[in-house]
């Protein structure tokens, strides 16, 4: 049977159930409105039973402009967000202040390092914590992400008179709907947020009655008044900054056909007797991603232009271009698990405790969320993607660089949404510019750039206000940057990011310092958020040297820089510098319990179930620990995973899904993914930490990709017939210290090594049959995979740019397979 026939059979044998299942894979549906009682998302302990607006309303977004709709019968509440709207920070300051950096330099760094070497634990004035805070940490404000506006549309309908209520969001088309009946009349609303035309669109219709609506626009920020004139509400406002308030504008424009639209003195619009009403919303801030001013957009002119263009096009054309745009991206990659739909609403699916149906929907919805909160924007998705109703959101709704912002982008390439990565690239380029000031001023490092734990949209690169949170992030951010190249093999992109990669490495070349044993380590640092020797020194005892995650990421960064400079044929001396440093990096170590050590000393506590497991970065998202290649490190990673346990926060369970998939334990990966989808999801399937944090949605989707396809290993020996012999290895056992694993120096030829595409590396038994189309693999390939009875049945690998790979399927490693651009290679069970 050929691959096409097999796919057709798969669809046909599912018969009518497939038609229904196709919708169930994409549509979130509810039989009641969102809970609009609360507009806040505060409080760590928020109970899922207290679901409010942000947990129950449904999200729309075009990558920059976001909205949520509540479906309220009497009052529709639209929360509007603009991803650039941050407040309570500075902009336009001198470059050093703008970077947030403490001006101290190498002398103060040495003072701090001395107390690290002296082991001054605790929080006394001469402790590592106190001196790091005193000498290295920022005193400048980070600010917070803030909501833009709220648009309220009142119908005058009494919820008690309503029947057949349905509220849906179709993640394949990006259309939201609200439908209900009053007597014999059906009232329908449709919502979407257009990327091609940069507007939010709402349309109200009634089957055989007229519509009487009141439309209001408000904001929580200081504003001139919302002004209604003609068929528009124009709202201008300012968001408070410590320096240079943000200016913004929103226009709501209404088309009610021949019906009367009457502007009111309070800034609202009254619509009487309309057959149908279309509402357009455009909005911008004056933000521009230009360091250090961060302003200058002609937001008023852009707002007027966007609204006029959208109004000229009209509803049908806007809707068509929107559906074509979203469904085009959604259809690139489709996961089709084989299940019978339960006929439940989405909130019921969550409370029933997990199913293939929910797992399939969660994956597709995560792709939808990704393209909705990160596309065409100057800044990346934040802790809540771009949906936030709170002026004081949890954790500032910022950019945490010790897992969260990186996790937001893990799924982008594997799940075939490459364009969603661009905002992350734009942002890191600004960080590299700003972080050069932090490197120089705080650490006395004249080359390269440095980034701390928390970021904003105004180039904040300084160290966190708490010395115990001293942390570098350039190496981790660059891992995402290079991996995007690995997937797409776009040399122009590599040219663009090369200075950022090189700058990150240059910083560490100078910043690395010898520890007492002579090995080169990063310090001050921490192992994200975790404490050691808690019984002796307390839970704040987090400051560390040579934490395993840093050292793993440095090997990753240096290796990537060596490859990038070889591909671009430049910087031979720099390459040599890195090659000389790699063997001196502090080794990875296996500790007394057989665990991979989190720190260079054997401080791990087997009862520690901390949510961060940063010392497994080399397993995922890195590529240097594998059950097929580095057996001892794999065993040690297994022990660590067992110690850390299963249930945790949303993002932590997303990461654990990825880890177990990389450990090739599909059932365990699935168990954790099921927990994430059923126990860490609100009614609208937003992930909860708690409270809402979007990283878990994206980490979970990345985990699904990892279960079905892995492509992080590379073949450096074309003649070898097993992965163990063929694959590149980054660590080798130290002959004199058996539990030490020292980094290996890569040669330039690694750049030519084909990636190994491993099909179904961790297929869970709970997903016995299914099909996935359009996953992406490193090396520039797209892969379709079908399986049945828990076994691979067919696969197709398409080359998007021409290239060579090796296939690992059903335990067999193929020879090199070379494809021209557009060519494909088919694997069939029958041809085995
Ligand atoms: C990191 C995590 C927390 C939370 C915060 C936003 O600090 O450790 O769990 O996700 O980011």
Short description:
A hairpin with a 6-residue loop joins strand 29 (731-733) and strand 30 (740-743). This protein is an alpha+beta fold and 832 residues long.
Q: How are the SSEs ordered, and which strands pair?
A:
Elements: H1 3-24, E1 27-30, H2 53-56, E2 58-61, E3 65-69, E4 75-82, E5 86-87, H3 95-99, H4 106-117, H5 128-136, E6 144-145, E7 149-154, E8 162-170, E9 175-182, E10 185-193, E11 200-206, E12 211-218, E13 222-223, E14 227-229, E15 232-239, E16 246-255, E17 260-263, E18 269-274, E19 276-285, H6 299-313, H7 315-331, E20 334-337, H8 346-351, H9 356-373, E21 399-400, H10 404-408, H11 422-443, E22 454-455, H12 474-488, H13 491-511, E23 513-514, E24 520-521, E25 525-526, H14 534-537, E26 543-544, H15 548-567, H16 572-581, E27 588-589, H17 631-644, H18 650-662, H19 666-679, H20 695-708, E28 709-710, H21 723-726, E29 731-733, E30 740-743, E31 755-759, E32 770-777, E33 781-788, E34 791-799, E35 803-809, E36 812-813, E37 817-819, E38 824-828
Bound molecules: alpha-L-fucopyranose.
Alpha-L-fucopyranose is lined by residues 383, 395, 400, 402, 404, 529, 611-612, 649, 651, 689, 693.
């Amino acid at each position: 049977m050929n691959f096409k026939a097999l796919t057709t059979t798969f669809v046909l044998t599912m018969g009518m159930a497939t038609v229904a299942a196709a919708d169930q894979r994409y549509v979130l549906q509810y039989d009641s409105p969102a809970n609009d009682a609360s507009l806040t998302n505060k409080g760590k302990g928020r109970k899922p039973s207290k679901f409010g607006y942000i947990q129950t309303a449904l999200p729309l977004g075009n990558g920059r402009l976001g909205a949520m709709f509540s479906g309220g019968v009497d009052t529709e509440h639209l929360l509007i967000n603009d991803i650039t709207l941050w407040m309570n920070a500075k902009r336009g300051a001198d470059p050093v202040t703008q970077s947030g950096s403490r001006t101290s330099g190498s002398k103060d760094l040495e003072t701090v390092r001395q107390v690290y070497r002296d082991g001054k634990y605790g929080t006394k004035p001469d402790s590592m914590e106190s001196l790091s805070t005193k000498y290295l940490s920022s005193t400048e404000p980070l600010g917070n992400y803030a909501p833009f506006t709220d648009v309220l549309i009142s119908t005058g309908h009494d919820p008690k008179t309503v029947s057949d209520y349905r509220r849906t969001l179709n993640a394949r088309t990006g259309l939201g709907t609200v439908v209900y009946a009053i007597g014999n009349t059906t009232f329908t609303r449709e919502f979407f947020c257009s990327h091609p035309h940069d507007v939010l669109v709402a349309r109200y219709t009634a089957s055989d009655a007229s519509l009487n609506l009141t439309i209001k626009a408000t904001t929580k920020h200081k504003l001139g008044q919302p002004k209604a004139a003609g068929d528009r509400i124009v709202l201008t406002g300012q968001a408070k900054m410590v320096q240079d308030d943000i200016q913004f504008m929103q226009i709501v424009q209404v088309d009610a056909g021949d019906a009367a639209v009457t502007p009111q003195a309070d800034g609202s619009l009254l619509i009487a007797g309309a057959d149908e009403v279309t509402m357009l919303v455009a909005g911008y801030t004056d933000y521009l991603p230009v360091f250090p001013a961060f302003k200058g957009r002609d937001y008023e002119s852009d707002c007027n232009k966007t609204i006029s263009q959208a109004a000229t096009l009209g509803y049908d054309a806007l809707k068509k271009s929107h559906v074509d745009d979203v469904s085009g991206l959604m259809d690139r990659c489709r996961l089709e698990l084989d299940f019978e739909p339960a006929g439940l609403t989405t909130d019921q699916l969550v409370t029933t405790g997990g199913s293939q149906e929910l797992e399939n929907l969660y994956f597709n919805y995560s792709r939808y969320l990704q393209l909705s909160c990160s596309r065409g924007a100057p800044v990346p998705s934040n802790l809540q993607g771009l949906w936030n109703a709170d002026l004081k959101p949890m954790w500032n709704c910022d950019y945490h660089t010790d897992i969260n912002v990186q996790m937001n982008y893990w799924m982008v390439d594997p799940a075939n949404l490459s364009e969603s990565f661009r905002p992350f690239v734009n942002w890191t380029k600004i960080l590299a510019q700003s972080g050069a000031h932090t490197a120089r001023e705080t650490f006395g490092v004249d080359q390269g750039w440095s980034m701390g734990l928390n970021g904003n949209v105004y180039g904040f690169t300084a160290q966190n206000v708490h010395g115990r949170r001293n942390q570098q992030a350039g190496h981790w951010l660059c891992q995402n940057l290079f991996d995007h190249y690995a997937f797409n093999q776009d040399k122009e992109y590599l040219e663009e990011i090369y200075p950022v990669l090189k700058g990150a490495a240059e910083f560490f070349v100078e910043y690395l310092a010898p520890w007492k044993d002579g090995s080169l380590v990063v310090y001050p640092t921490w192992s994200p958020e975790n404490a050691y020797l808690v019984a002796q020194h307390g839970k704040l005892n987090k400051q560390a040297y040579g934490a395993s995650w840093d050292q793993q990421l440095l090997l990753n960064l240096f290796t990537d820089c060596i490859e990038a400079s070889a591909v671009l044929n430049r910087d031979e001396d720099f390459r040599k510098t890195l090659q000389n440093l790699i063997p001196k990096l502090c080794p990875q170590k296996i500790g007394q319990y057989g665990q991979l050590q989190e720190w260079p000393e054997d401080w791990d506590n087997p009862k520690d179930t901390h949510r961060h497991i940063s010392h497994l970065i080399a397993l995922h998202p890195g590529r240097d620990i594998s059950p097929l290649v580095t057996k001892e490190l794999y065993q040690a990673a297994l022990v660590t995973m067992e110690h850390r346990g299963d249930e945790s926060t949303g993002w932590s369970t997303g990461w654990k899904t990825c880890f177990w998939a990389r450990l090739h334990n599909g059932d365990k990966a699935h168990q954790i993914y099921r927990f994430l989808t059923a126990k860490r999801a609100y009614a609208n399937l937003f992930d909860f930490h708690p409270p809402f944090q979007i990283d878990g949605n994206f980490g979970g989707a990345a985990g699904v990709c990892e279960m079905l396809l892995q492509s992080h290993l590379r073949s450096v020996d074309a003649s070898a017939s097993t992965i163990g012999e063929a694959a590149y290895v980054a660590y080798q056992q130290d002959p004199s210290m058996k539990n030490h694993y020292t980094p290996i120096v890569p040669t330039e030829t690694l750049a030519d090594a084909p990636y190994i595409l491993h099909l179904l590396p961790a297929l869970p038994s709970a997903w016995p049959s299914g099909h996935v189309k359009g996953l992406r693999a490193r090396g520039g390939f797209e892969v379709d995979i079908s399986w049945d009875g828990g076994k691979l049945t067919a696969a197709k690998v398409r080359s998007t740019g021409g290239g060579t790979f090796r296939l690992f399927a059903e335990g067999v490693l193929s020879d090199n397979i070379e494809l021209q651009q557009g060519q494909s290679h088919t694997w069939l069970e029958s041809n085995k």
